[in-house]
Amino acid sequence: MAATLYVIPGSHPSMAARLMLEIKGIEYKRVDLMPVISKGVLKALRFPGTTVPALKLDGHKIQGSVQIARELDRLRPEPPLLPGDPERRTAVEEAERWGDEVLQGMARRIVWNAMQRDRPSIGTFAQGARLGVPTGLAVKAAPPVIAAAVRVNRASDENVRSDLAALPGALERIDDWIAEGVLGGETVNAADLQVATSVRLLLTMDDLRPAIEDRPAGRLALGIVPSFPGRVGPVLPPAWLQPAKAAEAAPS
Ligand SMILES: N[C@@H](CCC(=O)N[C@@H](CS)C(=O)NCC(=O)O)C(=O)O
């Protein structure tokens, strides 16, 4: 199988796709793209959409972390990313959908907003990446990239403040799924990958790590994604962090 995976360094669904390929034992070439500029590259490569992860597999183009999971299960069924039992499968698909449609965007908005306040941190996400330009140069070009990413991802102060208010509920939901065995079971499933990579991205933030790392959701993320680049300093307004801090003080 000839596989090329297009990613953005520090992109959480890109990390999910990388782990899927590793779990399936499929060797692949990774191409690192700069955020925002990635859109033009993917268009030029004639992918149907403009987001990463984007996978070229034996000439076929597959885009989106959920779609990649399904296609990999179809082409290489073992080990499966979804359980065979229909009831368990439905539960895993629901957690995966929520991870893709809700949690992923929440994590993305929070981190871009924080990066806007700690611009040099963008360089820490490029560790181990091959962007085609020296990391120092990429960091110098970062301010307009960050501004565009904040705009494109709607990472406004208003949205991020409400994301942070919703975060304790989201973490509780993940802890509950772990307790029910939907997430964090013996074998890593598609929902584990979807959810753990978003939580892992949030763990790169000094503002949030203490509220996350010692709870089941945090342990799941660190177990499934032990290595993830990036570190954002404590930059968010303390008032925005109150809900997360309250949840940290009173663990469930
Ligand atoms: N839910 C989709 C969305 C992926 C997505 O939005 N990826 C972001 C990076 S995390 C992206 O490509 N953004 C475009 C950009 O930053 O230019 C998936 O899981 O594949």
Could you explain how this protein is built, in words?
58% of the residues lie in helices and 7% in strands. It has a 4-stranded mixed sheet with strand order 2-1-3-4, with helices on one face. The longest helix is centred in the middle third of the chain and has 32 residues, at 86-117. The chain is built from 12 helices and 4 strands. The chain starts with a strand and ends with a helix. It has 252 residues and is α+β, with helices and mostly antiparallel strands. The radius of gyration is 18 Å and the shape is globular. The structure holds glutathione. The site of glutathione (GSH) has 17 residues, from helix 1, helix 2 and helix 4.
List the helices and strands and how they pair.
Elements: E1 3-7, H1 12-24, E2 29-32, H2 37-44, E3 54-57, E4 60-63, H3 65-75, H4 86-117, H5 122-125, H6 135-140, H7 142-152, H8 157-180, H9 190-202, H10 209-212, H11 216-224, H12 238-249
Helix pairs in contact: 1-3, 1-9, 4-7, 4-8, 4-9, 8-12, 9-11
